[in-house]
Amino acid sequence: MAATVVGSTPLEEPDLSRMERYGSRSCCINLTYQCLQGFPGQEHLHYTLCHHDAAAPCGFDSDLGCCNGYMYCIGMFVEQHGLEDTHNHCKTRLCNPNRR
């Protein structure tokens, strides 16, 4: 059974998560990356802080953070491979890998 609410509009891309529809994914990744650039050689110590700091300006709860897939990827590789290479590798990761 389908229903249409008067005055509503369908989502332009219904398969995208809320984060992806509203551009918050790129906001989160960009702000996290910018923050990490302020800690050269110590990114592996600050990636969770930067991730949580990026959440609120991008429309998410700062306690929960945003784009966890990117954060976990950064945490796994940044110390060994450096920030720029790791960012380029991780920026296409799903934000919530366990959700579709």
Automatic annotation (TrEMBL):
It comes from the Eukaryota. This is Conotoxin.
